[in-house]
């Protein structure tokens, strides 16, 4: 390109920059303001989740007027967005469904989706937030053939708003929770994949998960979360039915053994008593 033409192009670029640059400060301020407001709304969503959990633990109804006064405050124009995002969080992570029971006074309650699909022992021994998270992980493991890669588990947790290395406002460090806490409590098994180099890991159900819930209950929970029915997953449903039958047979066998032992003990006591009388 001729030198004179290059000089003209540079001059044109400088004029263009001079025209654009005065507009940038205002645009930057608007962007910053929007970013700050979005940050405040995100904080309100977090506070709303805490508020809903607090009301659930107290077994109190949730009123719109109270939410506006105690949580939303000056962000009333964003009330529906904040409530919707908080409700999605409650459902996805905690298994709690926000239901409006009085549309005139705008009164809500939280319904525990796990009450029907979880063993009471699981709910009683792990607080509600962790129970929902655990059931979701157990569901992923079941749906992946009873053994899920760590990568697959994290894909599910990411959808739920939990990320490796990012502290969660309810759960703290998610990696510690799923690879150490729940493993130490025997709800999950976390092991290295054989012959993997570099090493990769996978999750399985732990002993307490097998003892305190069932494949059918986990499938029911996952179906409820996705607003479906267990039979929508035919192969998993059949496997869960087989698991129920095997558990029923195991319980029947255990009762039969207990009855046989009790009968043998009773016979031994009766025999011993009879022998003593003859002596």
Report on the structure:
With 279 residues, the protein is mostly helical. It has two domains: 3-112, Arc Repressor Mutant, subunit A (Orthogonal Bundle); 115-233, Arc Repressor Mutant, subunit A. The protein contains twelve helices and six strands. The longest helix has 45 residues, at 234-278. The protein is elongated. It starts with a helix and ends with a helix.
Please describe the structure with a list of short key phrases separated by commas or semicolons:
single chain, 279 residues, mainly alpha, Arc Repressor Mutant, subunit A, 2 domains, 6 strands, 10% strand, elongated
Q: What topology does this entry show?
A:
Blueprint: H1 3-20, H2 24-58, E1 62-63, H3 64-72, H4 79-94, E2 96-102, E3 107-112, H5 114-117, H6 120-125, H7 128-143, E4 148-149, H8 150-159, H9 174-184, E5 188-192, E6 201-205, H10 207-212, H11 215-225, H12 234-278
Antiparallel strand pairs: 1-3, 2-3, 4-6, 5-6
Helix pairs in contact: 2-4, 7-8, 7-11
Short description:
This protein has helices spanning 3-20, 24-58, 64-72, 79-94, 114-117, 120-125, 128-143, 150-159, 174-184, 207-212, 215-225, 234-278; strands at residues 62-63, 96-102, 107-112, 148-149, 188-192, 201-205.
Instruction: Give the overall average pLDDT.
Output: 82
Shape, principal axes of CA atoms: elongated
Low-pLDDT segments, ≥5 res: none
Q: State the distance separating the first and last CA atoms.
A: 127 Å
Gyration radius (Cα, Å) is 29 Å
Number of strands: 6
**Briefly, what CATH class of the largest domain?**
Mainly Alpha
- The CATH topology label of the largest domain is Arc Repressor Mutant, subunit A
Helical fraction equals: 55-70%
In the CATH hierarchy, what is the architecture of the largest domain at level 2?
A: Orthogonal Bundle
Question: What's the helix-strand series?
Answer: HHEHHEEHHHEHHEEHHH
Organism: Capra hircus
InterPro entries: MAGE, MAGE_WH1, MAGE_WH2, MHD_dom
Pfam family, one: MAGE
GO cellular component, one term: nucleus
């Amino acid at each position: 390109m001729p030198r004179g033409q290059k000089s003209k192009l540079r001059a044109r670029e400088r004029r263009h920059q001079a025209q654009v640059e005065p507009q940038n400060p205002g645009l930057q301020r608007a962007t910053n303001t929007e970013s700050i407001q979005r940050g405040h709304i995100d904080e309100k969503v977090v506070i709303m989740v805490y508020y809903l959990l607090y009301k659930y633990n107290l077994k109190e109804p949730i009123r719109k007027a109270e939410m506006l006064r105690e949580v939303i405050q000056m962000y009333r124009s964003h009330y529906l967005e904040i409530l919707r995002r908080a409700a999605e969080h409650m459902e996805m992570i905690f298994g709690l469904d926000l239901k409006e029971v009085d549309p005139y006074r705008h009164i809500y309650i939280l319904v525990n989706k796990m009450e029907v699909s979880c063993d009471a022992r699981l709910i009683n021994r792990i607080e509600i937030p962790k129970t929902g998270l655990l059931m979701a992980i157990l569901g992923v493991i079941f749906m992946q053939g009873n053994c899920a890669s760590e990568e697959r588990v994290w894909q599910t947790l990411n959808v739920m708003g939990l990320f490796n290395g990012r502290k969660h406002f309810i759960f703290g460090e998610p990696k510690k929770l799923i690879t150490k806490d729940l493993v130490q409590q025997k709800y999950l098994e976390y092991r290295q994949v054989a012959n993997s180099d570099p090493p990769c890991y996978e999750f399985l159900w732990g002993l307490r998960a097998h003892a305190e819930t069932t494949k059918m209950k986990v499938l029911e929970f996952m179906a409820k979360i996705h607003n479906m029915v267990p039979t929508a997953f035919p192969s998993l449903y059949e496997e869960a039915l087989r698991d129920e039958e095997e558990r029923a047979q195991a319980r029947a066998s255990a009762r039969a053994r207990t009855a046989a032992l009790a009968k043998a003990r009773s016979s031994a006591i009766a025999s011993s008593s009879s022998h003593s009388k003859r002596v």
